[in-house]
Specification:
This protein has 5 helices and 2 strands; from the N terminus they run ββααααα. The protein is mainly alpha-helical and 168 residues long. A two-stranded antiparallel ribbon has the order 1-2.
Amino acid sequence: MIFPSSSVPVMVEGQTRGSMVKLISSEPWLEAEVREIPEEIPGRATARTEALMRATYELFQHYAELAPKLSPDLLIHVLASQDPGHIADYIAQNIPMRNSDKQSILEELHPVRRLEKLYKLLEREVEILSLDAEIQSKAREQIAGHQRDYYLREQLKAIQNELGEGEG
């Protein structure tokens, strides 16, 4: 990524959710008045929540198998958490997906509903990665088949020439 000489890339991680009350300025940088949104603390994990977390772990492991260049530390961090909101936030921020999808997860305040949204989006991402892998595999097979055909034809020509049956 190329930035003008006066620009510096910055990675920012929020500590809590917030809502913008007022935009103070946009030049030379963004400045706003923000109201903190208290985090909804889920009660004791229900069987449904536990099932959703397990399903998300399993789906994320499948995603990790399909995704190129996904850090193994990411999977370990996710599996170590028992907080549905944290799992949803952490996965969403660390995998490539549309910004609008990440925003929809960020905007959901209830942790379990946030995990449900992530699960649906993760299902779509796994389906896309699976289809991509299938397409690439078929293309490789087709290329390999063409190369095999070419090689066999060349061998056949060489044998025919040896036998004196080749083209004049």
